[in-house]
Amino acid sequence: MIPSPLPGSEPGLNRPRLLVVDDQPANLQALYRTFAADHQVYMATTGTQALELARERQPDLILLDLDLPDLDGFEVCARLRADPRLRDTPVIVVTAHSDEAAETRALSTGAVDFIAKPIHPAVVRARVHTHLMLKHQGDLLRRMAFLDPLTGLHNRRALDERLAADLRQAARQSQSLAVLMIDIDRFKRYNDHYGHLAGDDALRRVAATLQAGMLRPMDLVTRYGGEEFVGLLPDTDPAGAMAVAERLRDAVAALGLPHPLSEVKPCLTISLGVACQAANAPSDAARLLARAEQALLQAKAAGRDGLVLAADDA
């Protein structure tokens, strides 16, 4: 029995991506015919080519032969597991080796399954379907671990990982990186006056407004905790970061959420601190966040509903 297609594998939608690695054209063609109708199939004939394609195409699953002309399948599997971008990609070994030692070594190296040749298309399809479903479920759980359940934004854990990655990217590309530290003004008074259910709704609306204000795909806004948010703006200098901060401040004020207990304005407002990691400067995530937080404290001390650029960037 052929399993039903995975969600998203129907023609015309984003189909699961498979990377098939084998040095024999006949084997490649057999696997291509098995999966081409409802999967995107990429093919490689060497271990080096397989690793390059995996990094470029980010497949959902890899079918890997052990006997390759350069790197063997064990080495390819080990290198995949050592790459943070690929370590969660399931690898099914498809090989002429049917001995227990090869299977044990393949599984201990990181493969999730072992299929001996000659292949039976229905069996291979069933196993691929099973491991794609398991990967889909694992990806969903990983995404949920990085999301704030109230606002739907990325959470503090996601911020830590993304900030570290953005700093590495900035160093490689000699680019600047800006951080916005954002706080809702007098939010405790808002909760005390309207209640926590209304406060939660306000947090969701502010979060959606901040997210909408991040106009580039590379920009990110996260919930930092309580009524605080952090924005990450790669390849952004101080002037550009201040322009984004001003746009976000205006957008939240434009929501017009009544806040009669705030001395700032009769509606909900935000304060923002802005700090930038200059191009070619030493990377320091903790210091960058601390500078943005200090600038935020200055914005709040100056009367709130404003923005301050960290002194080092002014």
Short summary of the structure?
This protein is an alpha/beta fold and about 325 residues long. It is built from 10 helices and 10 strands.
Structure description:
This protein has 314 residues and is of the alpha/beta class. The protein folds into two domains: 17-144, Rossmann fold; 156-313, 2-Layer Sandwich (Alpha-Beta Plaits), CATH 3.30.70. Helix content is 46%, strand content 18%. The protein has ten helices and ten strands. The strands form two sheets. A five-stranded parallel beta sheet has the order 2-1-3-4-5, sandwiched between helices. It has a five-stranded mixed beta sheet with strand order 7-8-6-9-10, sandwiched between helices. Strand 3, helix 3 (73-82) and strand 4 (91-95) form a beta-alpha-beta unit. Helix 7 (187-194) crosses helix 8. The chain is elongated and about 75 Å long. The termini are far apart. The model is unreliable at 1-12 (pLDDT under 50).
